[in-house]
Amino acid sequence: MSKKLGIIMDPIRSINFKKDTSLLILLAAKKSGFTLYLIEQNDLYLDSDEPRALTAELNVFDDEKEWFELKPKRDISISDLDVILMRKDPPFNKEYIYSTYILEAAKRKGVLIVNDPQSLRDCNEKIFATEFKQFTPPLIVTKNIKLLKAFLAQNEEVVYKPLDGMGGESIFKVNYKDENINVILETLTKFGTRTIMAQKYITDIRNGDKRILIIGGRVIPLCLARIPPKGEFRGNLAAGGSGIVKQLSERDLLIANSVAEICVKRGLLFVGLDIIGNFLTEINVTSPTCAREIDKELDFSIGDLFMECISKRL
Predict the structure, then answer these.
(1) Is 126 a catalytic residue?
(2) Most buried residue, 134, 156, 236, 276, by most Cβ within 10 Å?
(3) Which are the contacts of 251, defined by CB distance < 8 A and separation ≥ 6?
(4) Is 206 labeled as catalytic in the residue annotation?
(5) Angle at the Cα of 85 (from 81 to 87), degrees rounded to 5?
(6) Is the pLDDT of residue 166 over 80?
(7) Would residue 274 show up in a list of annotated catalytic residues for this protein?
(8) Does the annotation count 226 as an active-site position?
(9) Looking at the predicted structure, is the pLDDT value of residue 174 above 70?
């Protein structure tokens, strides 16, 4: 009897076939013999202590014109699944947190949840990196506008960003001469009521924001360096950056192996690090991407490696 794998993700019909990491994982899961079930976040619910969802049995194909097929939705207890992958994109809002509570109910009934729901709540993608102070640039996390301006004065050029975004959204690079600093900080902090992060600007961004993947504690030996387009400081592919696959440097490996050890202990089996120059800037745990771009250059499959990791856990 085949194992059952559920995945919570954004609508599958809207994904980018050539780049979507969730599709790479699903293709590998199908190859490994899993029966697949698609769950949208809005379809999760609790009935007393029973975690349930409206799910559709899913088939996937490595075909740019037709990459999925869905059966009609039906109501099931998700505790009947063997593993559930939580790959819903941010924003990391209250609804996301409520979903992790439902997934935790499934975990109590023996379902493997990847990544672990408690760690999804605990490990904010921006703040988690601060646990590795030896690798991070100067930074501050606060909603106090005076402190944010003082940090700018001290470092002369900084990047301000919200704690719950993705894809480079609402990220500002500001220097100490910028006349718009007040309005930028008022907007980002909602007049001092929302906490944000400020990081010293790293000039090595011109060489790319490196995405490094960690699968079950194993550091993938290649990364995708996302190069900002002309006139832009953000390397995110969603912001127009271009990707180049590169070997990891000794510094990259040192950082990634240090983070990997902690991630495994916390049930974070699929993780994406962001490294600019010599500095760790983010640890992505919700729905890390860039696997398809890196996978093309490897002599093994990232999806197969992930399925091996899941099978061992099961």
Answers:
(1) yes
(2) 276
(3) 278
(4) no
(5) 145
(6) no
(7) yes
(8) yes
(9) yes
